[in-house]
Write a structure and sequence with these properties.
The chain is α/β, with parallel strands linked by helices. Helix content is 30%, strand content 20%. The longest helix has 10 residues. Belongs to the class I-like SAM-binding methyltransferase superfamily. TPMT family.
């Protein structure tokens, strides 16, 4: 499978932070993703009160939507600005505390406790820190991680999933020779080999 010139492309954490600082967040959806609404029943599978993980969450509005339905939401994002904007835009009071296991990391959590957002690299997380999840909404994470880090990313995600968890993944399909990414092109064959 040809991923064009993308396989060696690296987007540094600083580049993502700069996008948030300058407001260059074309990837953020103000109204929530229509595919999550369409496939919500697949994610929930008739269950309620789930723990749902949002990798590279930004300020995704779906986090509040799912929390309002009674689910517990955990997200991770390198940009503290994105996380604070999420709480501000939804008028959610939150408290902030350090994460002892991760140097420099913070956990921002609603005072009601149903939304906990970690400000750190996703690769610093583990199930011993955040627990395991019944569902994952990967709207822009796999397509945002550097192509060389995909196996590392997927290996981590698998360790964060409960036995019967659901994983909703959104990717994009295009000619990778015409766009350097992100979002990166992840062919279906690679998704199958990564997740098994």
């Amino acid at each position: 499978t040809d991923t064009g010139s993308q396989k060696d492309r690296v987007v540094a954490e600083e580049e993502w932070l700069r996008k948030w600082e300058t407001g260059n967040i074309w990837f953020h959806k103000e109204r929530g993703h229509p595919l999550l609404q369409k496939y919500l029943d697949v994610l929930l599978n008739g269950r309620s009160g789930l723990r749902i993980f949002f990798p590279l969450c930004g300020k995704a509005v779906e986090m509040k939507w799912l929390a309002d339905m009674g689910h517990s939401v955990v997200g991770v994002e390198v940009s503290e600005k994105a996380l604070k904007e999420f709480f501000a835009e939804h008028s959610l009071p939150f408290c902030e505390e350090p994460v002892p296991e991760i140097s420099g990391a913070k956990k921002l959590q609603t005072t009601s406790g149903n939304i906990a957002l970690y400000c750190c690299s996703i690769y610093d997380l583990s199930s011993s820190i955040v627990g395991k999840f019944d569902g994952v909404w990967d709207r822009g994470a796999l397509v945002a991680v550097n192509p060389r880090d995909r196996q590392r990313y997927v290996s981590l995600m698998i360790t964060l999933m409960e036995k019967n968890s659901s994983y909703l993944l959104v990717t994009v399909s295009y000619d990778p020779n015409k766009h350097k990414g992100p979002p990166f092109y992840v062919p279906e064959s690679e998704i199958k080999s990564l997740f098994g």
